[in-house]
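Listing S7. Sequence submitted for prediction.
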Amino acid sequence: MPEINDTVMELLFDPLVGQLITTIAGLIVIGLLVRFLQNRAERHIDKQRALASVKQALRFGGYVLAFFFVITIFSGHLPGLTVTLGVAGAGIAFALQEVITSLAGWIAISFGQFYTVGDRVELGGIRGDIIHIGVLRTTLMEIGEWVKADQYNGRIVRISNAFVFKEPVFNYSEDISFIWDEIALPVRYGSDHHLAREILLRAADKVIGDTVASITHEWQRMQGKYPVEHASVEPRVFLIANDNWMHCTLRYPVDVKRRRAVHDALFMDILDAIAASEGRVKLASATFELVGAPDFNVVLRQDAAKS
């Protein structure tokens, strides 16, 4: 028993054990501090995008503080471990290169403004809304696939953060909340193309007219930030005549997450207006008509043997 007590006392007064206990206690304090600051941020920041960025920055700051805290605690042992740590680090870096790249991707995402929580993006051919940005993976609520529209299909996808270094990152809602969309209508020749243009513009004004002012402000802010050319955000109609019909295309800005709903409202209004035009505007379809076919004269003669 005395020998056991002596061993316990030696462990308690061992400097390395003390450093380990101090490290564990310090990491717990740092974790609690980060959690406290994140909770305070949730109470004072209403915007989701800003809140996600602040929480991400606090989490990264916690990791950095923990790293330097551990280095400071064990600084006295580092000179003797330099060679060992170097060899072990090289092996670990080779074995965990994907993990390290994902970690580097997380740092790039946090400070490079690739995307944030709430953005609609396309990563590696997968489209969806960002719902979480982890240290190694980004989590998306997927849209599309068997759902033939920009709506959720119910799948949650986790993508390695290393994708930001390997493939393009398409962000639909980083600096502006809208995209340009188009509706194309085939109009038969002989229809009143002026009325067709007016029907499309009236429908656009009815469905999205209230949003044009805010969208214009967003685009002006975008032009002040980036050297982009002027682009009209007012709904416009373009007419192209081809061999089969007149192609009327309505171009308009729309909120990136309301594209299908706006499509539905526009088509309902356009089709109602065409039905009320009393035949002045008719939609074309891929039908084929034989025009000016020659007459065929068929003469039946009886067989000479029967005559």
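Caption to Listing S7: primary sequence and predicted structure tokens for the chain studied. The chain has nine helices and eight strands. Strands lie at 120-123, 126-133, 137-143, 152-160, 169-171, 178-187, 236-241, 246-255.
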